[in-house]
Design brief:
This protein is α/β, with parallel strands linked by helices. It contains 5 helices and 8 strands. Strands 1, 2, 3, 4, 5 and 6 form a 6-stranded parallel sheet that branches. The protein has a two-stranded antiparallel ribbon with strand order 7-8. α3 links the parallel β3 and β4. GO terms for molecular function: oxidoreductase activity.
Length: 188
Amino acid sequence: MSIVVLSGSTMGSKTRTAMNAVYDQIKNQHPDETVTLIDLADHELVFSDGRNYLEYTGDTQYVTQKLMDADAIFIGTPIFQASIPGSLKNIFDLLPQNGLRDKTVSLLMTAGSAKHYLIAETQLKPILAYMKAQIVQTFVFMDERDFHRKEIVNEDALFRIERLVEDTFILMYTYQSVKQAKEEEYGF
């Protein structure tokens, strides 16, 4: 299976710190899986202009191709101005309408305040559902209190990350086995 851990912002450090923890947890729990950590701050992506994702070049092609090839995607995003950052929205715009079909997607949100807890429910999950993702219903939300000097200091936050990884893999394996059984019914 191919797993992508996406840090969906070009600014700040909390989301990247959290996604590093997700990446490490995946490597610990599932050492045989192929895992790629993509931090949008490390890539120069062009804005979506409506082209097919295969027509882009450079970093844009690399990131979109990795996402399209993934079986599971862990999306980490900060909350800015009570919304997701434009860099993450651009990723969704670069992908085709059904670009997340058959992919298991889980979410990790970082914010300066607990007031932004429902952004995942009101903004991200509808986008992911529209793009046909298999969404892990629970998500991790972390705020200022969970971090200190670019480290996660809340043991409960680390436990929630561990559980998110576990839940994502369970849903991914379950979905893949059901899908395979359905395809085998056709007999060709």
